[in-house]
Design goal:
The chain has 1 helix and 19 strands. It is mainly beta and 304 residues long.
């Protein structure tokens, strides 16, 4: 199969509606009560859907706003990736609300969900955003812009970023409750429960000891991005408000459908942001998670 055919075939996603926030819970029975809204402004789950309940990130254009790439990317070459968001008037948007310390969050993943980058572009006066982006290997990638224009509701728009060349999509990692990154171990308790608000608790340790001095990153102790395997429906979830800097970080959200999901947790410690990643499965009768820890696939790809 040639490259164009591979890209086209792999880009075909699931067509299941991904409504609400990502739900991951501690066997909460009939469902956990809705958590208090965090003081830092709420979760991106609250803004990851359009007004017509379309899942975040599945469309390049929603509610009159469109994500426009201005740059192509070559494998292995650092690129000043540029893009705009045009508004209902067809002009680039220049005024954005600050959410979690930034006007726009930019997530780039490979469509096989093996690589992940959480970036923060800089905006010029003409509404053009730019960010240093390196995609190491050929393949199909998806980029998400998470933002709220001044006077408008929050949106997550998505666009494909193809990188020419032969490639072989990687198999989704096995379901696991433990991830390792840079000497840290992150353990997860809770299950994805379709259709109900529930919780996920992530606990960070190093060298067998709980980490109790996590550092705030973008106004909170942890960021969780969830992507549904297949269509890459996007959700950016933030934690429950806490006065303790670890080891536990608790998130609340909801998934309406069963299936496989990739979860990417950003946390900061000792002055560096790291990412732990998990594969989780939603739905009754899910298999017991593998006991072996996963190793985050490509942390050189994660830029902040």
């Amino acid at each position: 199969m040639n490259t164009a055919s591979k890209l086209g075939a792999y880009a075909v996603g699931l067509a299941v509606v991904f409504g609400g926030a990502l739900g991951v819970g501690n066997a909460v029975g009939e469902g956990a009560p809705a958590p208090a809204r965090p003081s830092h402004g709420g979760t991106h789950a609250e803004v990851a859907k359009s007004q017509d309940d379309t899942p975040g990130g599945l469309q390049v254009s929603q509610n009159g706003y469109t994500l426009n790439p201005l740059t192509t990317v070559k494998a292995g070459e650092p690129t000043d990736f540029r893009f705009t968001v045009t508004g209902p008037d067809g002009k680039p948007v220049t005024d954005y609300q600050v959410q979690h310390d930034k006007k726009l969050h930019f997530i780039v993943v490979s469509r096989d969900l093996a690589t992940f980058q959480h970036l923060h572009p800089e905006q010029s006066g003409d509404g053009v955003w730019s960010v240093k982006l390196t995609l190491a290997a050929p393949g199909a990638y998806r980029a998400f812009a998470d933002f709220a224009p001044v006077g408008g509701s929050g949106l997550t728009l998505g666009m494909d970023v193809p990188v020419a060349g032969d490639y072989e999509p990687r198999v989704l990692p096995a379901v696991t409750r433990t991830a390792q990154v840079d000497g840290y171990t992150v353990s997860m308790t809770g299950d994805l429960v379709p259709g109900q608000a529930s919780k996920l608790t992530l606990s960070v340790s190093k060298d067998g000891r709980p980490v109790t001095d996590l550092q705030p990153y973008l106004g909170t102790y942890g960021h969780l991005v969830a992507l549904r395997a297949g269509d890459l429906a996007y959700l950016h979830v933030h934690p429950e408000e806490s006065d303790t800097a670890g080891p536990e970080i608790t998130f609340y959200a909801e998934v309406p459908s069963g299936g496989d999901y990739r979860l990417f947790l950003d946390f900061q410690h000792a002055g560096k942001v790291r990412t732990a990643d998990f594969t989780a499965q939603a739905g009754a009768g899910q298999p017991k998670p593998a006991a072996e820890p996963s190793v985050s696939p490509s942390h050189d790809d994660h830029k902040h």
